[in-house]
Design brief:
alpha/beta; Oxidized Rhodanese, domain 1; 3 domains; 32% helix
Length: 471
């Protein structure tokens, strides 16, 4: 069977391309759809269907643009109520893609419309299942997202539905089926996903905690809900965009790709209330940045941190990027629904600096300087890593304020005495530094390379860093 996983690491997202005999289907596409169109063109195939496993929370799907550009039919599973033209399938309905068949299996639990698609090859053999967020490798979808859109859908109720879907719809299927999930490790849609992005169903039945054959529904609900962190604030907003519809990415790009001179950028910042978002690396941001701008580096989990830290997807944004990186930044913002970029600083920060405009910096210290200061002064230390990272190992006496909770705990940061910031490697602590600077904190330093460097020192191992089992 010709099926291809198209994986986007920064969102831990997997879309799928299926092709047979000149017809193609896309499952759970990202916002930018041209790569899928190009892939089908390479096979001289027409995209016939866009299959959606559910209304996604962690990204804005590209189904509407694919429909507009290719004429493909959008397909959702039972109970879905999209605000645009789409086919809402019935449980068990079969669709033909060339010589292949795609069978709808309604698997509510992550959301009520969640659907698994069974792939059947040209010989009639069942090949695999595209599971969306129903079944991951090593995990299952969290059941606490839909209640943020429909309050009566409690996490306990949805977890019960998910238990039934897994036991009655998924686990009876053949062990040799290949599981094709929508996400891998790093996604906030689950809590303990594997780094592997496909597996056989039989192996998952053996190793996935949620598929234990002897697990009762009560045990399943308890284990599934234990340890769930608060979902990012942008999730419900993305769900509504996927339900109701959204602007074409072409429209978003056209209104965002507006180069602004230094004076024009400054005027726009003063007149609109737009957030100035600087996407440069932490080391360059620290050396100089436009006052009141926030740093979220355009690497790794950029879009997810934007979603965690900017509460409203409708927030107007002015971009400061490395020259030539503005289009990538706009695209990655749009993937999570931030469609209101209104321009970018032409020439980047260097143009601002050359114009003689005021700028700010962030003081940084090496790990050696941190060691010396810790031994002689015992400074106040703030660790902005996740609680699980902090619980594993941390600087004795450090205060843990996870980056995604920083806005709720600003009162813990003193303004009358100096302190030290660190994360694991310097990315998150620079985001925190920029947020604190914007809010008036100045008397602090950031540790270059963060805890990754601190934990490797001999002093750290023996003296002031310890595992929680010793606390």
């Amino acid at each position: 069977m010709k099926i291809e996983q198209i994986y986007t690491g920064c969102l831990a997202h997997a879309a799928y391309y299926l092709e047979s005999n000149g017809e193609a289907a896309i499952f759970d596409p990202l916002r930018e759809v041209q790569p899928y169109i190009d892939r089908a063109k390479k096979d001289n195939a027409k995209i016939k269907y866009v299959f959606e496993t559910h209304f996604h929370a962690d990204f804005v799907s590209g189904h509407l643009d694919l429909q507009k550009k290719t004429g493909a039919q959008i397909v959702f599973g039972p109970t879905a109520k999209p605000g645009y033209d789409a086919l809402v399938a019935t449980d068990g309905q079969v669709f033909e893609v060339g010589d292949y068949k795609v069978k709808v299996i309604h698997t509510p639990g992550h959301t009520m419309e969640s659907t698994t698609y069974l792939l059947i090859d040209e010989t009639g053999k069942e090949h695999g299942i595209v599971t969306g967020d129903t079944l991951f490798i090593g995990d299952v979808g969290r059941p606490d997202l839909a209640q943020h859109v429909i309050s009566e859908l409690t996490e306990e109720k949805l977890a019960g539905y998910l238990y039934d879907s897994l036991r009655n719809k998924i686990m009876p299927l053949s062990d040799d089926l290949i599981v094709y999930p929508n996400h891998g490790a790093g996604s906030a849609c689950g809590k303990m996903m594997s780094k592997e992005t496909t597996d056989t169903l039989g192996h998952q039945k053996k190793v996935n905690y949620a598929l234990r054959a002897d697990m009762t529904k009560e045990e399943f609900i308890k284990e599934l809900l234990t340890g769930l962190t608060t979902p990012p604030g942008y999730f419900p907003q993305n769900v509504l965009m996927n339900i109701k519809g959204y602007d074409s990415l072409d429209t978003v790009m056209d209104r965002a790709k507006i180069p602004l001179s230094v004076d024009g950028f400054e005027a726009a910042a003063n007149e609109t209330g737009a957030l100035m978002l600087d996407t440069r690396d932490a080391k360059d941001f620290a050396k100089g940045f436009v006052p009141n701008s926030i740093n979220i580096g355009l690497v790794g989990n950029f879009a997810q941190w934007v979603g965690e830290l900017i509460p409203d997807v409708k927030q107007e944004i002015l971009l400061i990027t490395y020259p030539g990186k503005q289009e990538e930044a706009i695209t990655r913002l749009s993937r999570v629904g931030y469609d209101n970029t209104i321009g970018y600083l032409e020439g980047g920060f260097e143009s601002w600096k050359k114009a003689g405009k005021d700028f700010e910096t962030v003081d940084r210290i090496s790990v050696d300087e941190f060691e010396a200061a810790y031994e002689s002064e015992k400074p106040l230390v703030f660790d902005v890593r996740r609680k699980s990272e902090y619980d594993s190992e941390h600087v004795i006496g450090a205060i843990n304020v996870p980056l995604n909770e920083l806005n709720q705990h600003l009162s813990q940061f003193p303004k009358d005495k100096p302190f030290v910031l660190h994360c694991a490697g310097g990315y998150r602590s620079m985001i925190a530094a920029s947020m604190l600077k914007q809010r008036g904190w100045n008397d602090f330093v950031d540790v270059v390379e963060g805890f990754d460097a601190i934990s490797k020192t001999s002093v750290a191992k023996s003296d002031y860093v310890c595992p929680t089992t010793m606390l």
